[in-house]
Design a protein that fits this description.
3 copies of one chain form a homotrimer. Chain A is α+β, with helices and mostly antiparallel strands. Chain A has 2 domains: about 5-110, Rieske Iron-sulfur Protein; about 125-335, Naphthalene 1,2-dioxygenase Alpha Subunit, Chain A, domain 1. Chain A has helices spanning about 145-155, 160, 165-170, 170-175, 200-205, 280-310, 320-335, and strands at about 5-10, 20-25, 30-35, 40-45, 60, 65, 70-75, 80, 95, 100, 105-110, 135-140, 180-185, 185-195, 215-220, 225-235, 250-260, 265-270. In chain A, the strands form 4 sheets. In chain A, strands 12-18-17-16-15-14-13 form a 7-stranded antiparallel sheet. The first copy, chain A, has a 4-stranded antiparallel sheet with strand order 2-3-4-9, with no helix packed on it. The longest helix of chain A is centred in the last third of the chain and has 28 residues, at about 280-310. Chain A is elongated and about 75 Å long. The interface of B and C includes residues 29, 49, 66, 85 and 89 of B.
Chain lengths: ~325, ~325, ~325
């Protein structure tokens, strides 16, 4: 059970090639392919004839042709050719999901009934076209439910323990940082400031800080993705309340989409600011970002494996859970609706 | 549930060595070994003492000896020696299945009750001893129910899509070829002619055709195997109605045996005619035959994986399904009996 | 279901390093680590906060710190620090199991209720400190229930069939050896003598026997381990009734602990006597011991795999089963209690 009538991330535009892309989203196997000029089609990944995955077939003139007996489907899911047969039965079609590409992200609409159309635009990801930043992307498969990834991203106190070699820094400083949590019925915002703190390894590699820094973490959770803005300026150099502040910026996009009830896709981009005097160091930021997300995957999959081992064991809340718990309540309300 | 009181293919004679052969047939693990001069024994693969597979033991004087405590069984399944013990309890025995070797094929009888004896001979495979042909064999394991393999073999319209590089040829010609289907209560025959068609790659490699060919596919489905006769002559050179016609011949034997409800054994031989001027090219025919069956395995296993993903999804019949659907009805009637 | 209120082997002291040791015992995932001077702690392997395995964390001052958010636990299972939070809730704790190290073996107490304390000492393994012997250890994981390993160790008639190349020797001699079986409510003793028999390969490699030997096997089964004393003297040289007899000795310790209902840990040591004239040959004894236990693992896992294939199939008892059947009855009575 997942919240419906909303957009989910299905992948990145650059994943679409001359081959079909097979992926399971919200428990439904789909095939994703370019259809039309800038369009993208997302169909149920099943030929209506003998159930072979359409993703085993080939792209053909904006549609997709089954690799077993050649049935051809257009982007709406209708079968438009059965080789060797004149009449095409009306029921020869598969489900199609509304989909668009915006800011390099493939968004797919999952409604609560067949044929439901989107009632809103998918979110913009402005960092992807902000000339101040370069960005790179990654796709990580998780053998864990997607809300465990939300929990992780909404609670950046773990970075001192899990990511000590990269973006972490002193664990105690993280755990004791003043944190504010705010929310409405669709989103949660968590802001943490670590003033006059020692910059972590990734920051000092990327940016020539003079010494201590004023560091921030601004986490914005939405039902279908998170945007996390982190960074630092030399201590006292600028107000952390200034939205136009300079310094080293890392703007993360985190598309967390259920694959099944027990597995997930994690589509991420990292948009970071290169310092003009050391532009090559930005590669290190991406490498360490990828390493960081791999560290998260390992511990979250271990966590989920253990949750099944200890099914029903109680959990004790601590101070860092406020943001994650609000996000869970929002999803619970939306799923029940 | 499978049709009982019939022979199934358990393997090939050349698979029997000085080691026991373990195989699961119709959901029953069995051990197969030579017993007596030309005989073959097929026993339940379980020592009656502590359930160790007999196939972990050794062959000993026409019987099989358990590798744990040395109990010796003869080809009828009776325990005939318990080392260190004089008396052999009457219940010290395991089930035995009637089995014979004919034309290099091991046939095993599965009755509807213990001890049921065969009421007919197993089928002959005359191509195996026809001096006109050479033949080679293969054993393929399928993670798919056996009737999906029947479907595939009874519908050779798929060869244009799945086997384009070898025996396929033009997909549209295949899909539009005139096809006749006939059947009785135990068999189905599908005949397709593709006159004046372009020979596929395997054919031109094996035989010096002058140009276009008259090509045929004759599929004979039986409850425990299929025999498929395909080939071609130079266009107009001979009547396709002449059973003694020349040209390039490929005679396939296809023993399709359930391993379990969800997996299968596919025992095949290909008997082909080498052209006297280019006898070495026959090796290519076998290589491409093996490649073809591997291509089928990939798509059928994907099909079955997807059928489980979309359990209960309806399927739309098309024109090529006539033969396969009759075979399914025959098996359904026999299974219910 | 396993007998409770008793010690089980959890591992060997030398397995404890500066990293936590994760292991599942009796279906319960635990983390094992040194705590205090000679102490060992065994805790439920689950942080009470978000269920991450504590074994993914680090050892810290005699306790263990979770690798996700830094919660610190002492050896009693109490959480004694939550970074960034002053108050520690009373329920912030995990289960702890009483554990001691004796004669290099880690013993863990599993009671029938939380907090149950041991009412006896764990067993001594005197061979581990007997200057007459050297010993080596091994840990083998079994995909089979632990009582199948008991069956194997209590019935050394199988060594002729399974271990023909090492400790086996003539299979018929083993199967026909006079055997006495005695038992009480907690233990079984099986003694077998093979007088004037040919020594097996391992024995002749380790010890300069003159020819035939008087060979013995003394198996002592206890609820949580077995000790098996085997060896040989030159034929007629000494009475096998003399507990101080010389010759070649192999004293095996066999800690068999359920991992789950269907898998097991097998912790073994072999204490053997090196002959003064050929002390280097003792290495061969250990190599062949390890090979022997690997041969057992293969056949027992095949046995269990087959028992599931043939679920419910009857088993026929033979003469060698007397000891194993008594051990099974003892465990059945204790499990029911």
């Amino acid at each position: 059970m997942f919240p419906l009538n909303q957009w989910y991330v299905g992948g990145f535009a650059h994943e679409l090639t001359d081959k079909p892309l097979a992926r399971t989203l919200l428990g439904r196997p789909v095939v994703i392919f370019r259809s039309g000029d800038d369009g993208v089609a997302v169909l149920e990944d099943r030929c209506c004839h003998r159930s072979v995955p359409l993703s085993c077939g080939i792209l053909d003139g904006g549609g997709i042709r089954c690799g077993y007996h050649g049935l051809l489907y257009d982007g709406s899911g209708a079968c438009i050719e059965i080789p060797g047969q004149v009449k095409i039965p009306g029921k020869a079609r598969v489900a199609a999901y509304p989909a668009v590409i915006r800011d390099e992200v493939i968004w797919v609409w999952f409604g609560d009934a067949s044929g439901t159309q989107p009632h809103c635009e998918p979110p913009a990801i402005p960092a992807h076209s902000n000339p101040r930043y370069q960005h790179k992307t990654g796709v990580v498969h998780y053998r864990a439910p997607y809300q465990l990834i939300h929990d992780n991203l909404l609670d950046l106190s773990h970075v001192g323990y899990v990511h000590g070699k990269t973006i972490g820094g002193n664990a105690k400083v993280h755990m004791e940082a003043p944190t504010t949590v705010s929310s409405d019925e669709n989103s949660v915002r968590v802001v943490r400031w670590m003033k006059a703190s020692t910059p972590p390894a990734t920051y000092t590699a990327a940016w020539p800080f003079k010494g201590l820094v004023d560091r921030w973490q601004e986490i914005d959770f939405h039902l279908n993705h998170l945007q996390i803005f982190t960074g630092a300026v030399d201590v006292g150099a600028e107000s952390l309340e200034n939205p136009e502040r300079g310094g080293f910026h890392m703007r993360g996009f985190h598309g967390v989409t259920p694959e099944t009830e027990t597995s997930s896709h994690y589509f991420w981009t990292m948009s970071a600011s290169a310092h003009p005097e050391q532009p090559d160091n930005i590669d290190l930021v991406y490498q360490q970002t990828a390493q960081t997300f791999e560290e998260d995957r390992v511990i979250i999959e271990e966590q989920y494996r253990n949750m099944r081992q200890f099914a029903g064991a109680p959990q004790v809340d601590i101070h860092v859970d406020a943001g994650a718990n609000r996000a869970r309540r929002i999803i619970a309300v939306r799923t029940a609706a």
